[in-house]
Amino acid sequence: MKKTIGVLIFIFLSGQVITAQKALTKDQRMQWWREARFGMFIHWGVYSVPAGSWNGRQIGGIGEWIMNRAKIPAAEYQTMAKQFNPVNYDPDSWAKMAKDAGMKYIVITAKHHDGFALFETKASKWNVVDATMYGKDLLKPLAEACKKYGIKLGFYYSQAQDWNNPGGSAARKPTSEGWANPDSVTIDAYTKEHKGHWDPAQEMKTFAQYIDNVAVPQVKELLTNYGDVAVLWWDTPTDMTNEAATKLKSQLTLQPAIITNDRLKRPNFPGDHKTPEQRIPNIKDLDGTDWETCMTMNGTWGFKSYDHNYKTPETLIRNLLDIASKGGNFLLNVGPDNLGEFPKESIDILAKMGKWMKVNGEAVYGTKASPWGLFTWGRCTSKETKDRTTLYFSVFDRPEDGKLEIPDLKNNIISAVLLANGTKLKTSVSKSGLLTVILPYKAFDPIATIVKVVVKGKVNSKTSSKNK
After folding, report:
1. Of 363, 390, 412, the domain-final residue
2. Among residues 3, 66, 305, 339, which one has the fewest Cβ atoms lying within 10 Å of its Cβ?
3. Is residue 106 one of the residues assigned to a domain?
4. Can you give the CATH number for the domain in which 264 is found?
5. Are 333 and 401 found together in one domain?
6. Are 419 and 408 in contact (CB under 8 A)?
């Protein structure tokens, strides 16, 4: 009898927990994400084997699209999986690098458009366990490493485009979100005739069969077998129907706290946040919706052996500050090679960004957009409490006279310091509300010097709509 009562109590309490999870509001689900501001994107798959080259020639565009751009037949592409043997894969070091760089979450390509799954799946033999010498699930150890270092884990999943699993769709024409340099791509007659496909093997099943037999089961596996999943990052809704999108969206109940983006099927399935790619929106284009800029360090998402055109740490840190000043998140990409190693340039960039973030991260995490918009000399982020506002002025270019001028600030100043070392700064406020902060010369950081100003009450600047 006692045993029966215990079981009933357990069932009742479990039901309460599930109900509570399902009752999460969007703001509750998005809270950690809005505070994080900075995450790591990882594009990894069989495309890291050709590394941007096919049949002795370099293929233009982004690395993970090589199968499509070079029109590689499915059977030929699949033979490359035998060379995908990431024996140097160290998920612990990946998660630690993300944490040390100041990143709060990771989103990895569980399956990209080539249809190759980085995880063990019963829905397709085209996966790392069944198709490679490596023969082990790559996502489980990463999930464990992320948990160890307190990093949220998300999965990118190409729900519509799939060039190897029959029935998956393929882009009919190049787009800015899909192919780099789209104007240089020529579409042949066969591809036009066959809805973007170039190999008859891709059309042996229907799109509906692909959704039912591959996409839905794999999403279910991803949301069931890896513990807490923070983000599901859909991509390129080519040929998506409302029916297919509904089937995929229904799987989200397996992770009631999950966050999704806007690429499941536009516009009927907007998700939780927008995803501008390789660009930072202008303030005038923002509409109050949560957003996240995803960006490469060099010119490709997936690994290309010859792409060494990397952005500087200074550029990427300033991008992060620009994005945060507009209320967005920054998802910065790394493309590992086929052995499972990050490119050295990426490692060095992450280390330099982490060094800066360790000192100045307070100006990024948990902040809101600038009350003023943009400044010619830098950016601003803010935090509000009940009775005060903290303003973080990121100074990119030190004014020649050393005076930082912020208009329309009528609030009483509590303090003004350099965030890096706590040096107190002299300030003055004119009758019109022009705050002037005197900057030291020697303490100036060439990447960005953060001036932390705390004022009483909330800030309501009249110039916020003028500085776009």
Report:
1. 363
2. 3
3. yes
4. 3.20.20.80
5. no
6. no
356 and 390 in a single domain? The answer is no
> Are the beta carbons of 116 and 131 closer than 8 angstroms?
yes
Q: Which domain holds residue 190?
A: 28-363
At residue 181, what are phi and psi to the nearest 5 degrees? 50, 55
Whether residues 331 and 384 fall in one domain: no
Whether 159 and 136 share a structural domain: yes
Task: For residue 300, report the phi and psi dihedrals to the nearest 5 degrees.
Answer: -140, 155
Say whether both 158 and 230 belong to one domain: yes
Residue matched to tokens 């086929």: 338
- Residue from 287, 338, 291 nearest 87 by CA: 338
Q: How much is the pLDDT for 192?
A: 84
Q: Say how far apart CA 7 and CA 157 lie, in whole Å.
A: 38
* Integer angstrom CA distances of residue 30 from 106, 295, 317, 329: 15, 21, 23, 12
Distances (CA, A) of 417 to 364, 402, 410, 438, 440: 17, 15, 19, 10, 11
pLDDT tens-digit readout, 328-341: 999 999 999 999 99
pLDDT digits (tens, 9 = 90+) for 59-88: 999 999 999 999 999 999 999 999 999 999
- To the nearest 10°, report the CA torsion of 297, 303, 304, 305: 100
Distance CA 378, CA 384 (A): 21
What CATH number has the domain bearing residue 434? 2.60.40.1180
What is the Cα–Cα distance from 17 to 433, expressed in whole angstroms?
Answer: 51
| Secondary structure of residue 385 in the 3-state scheme | coil
Same domain, 391 and 347: no
Domains contained in the chain, number: 2
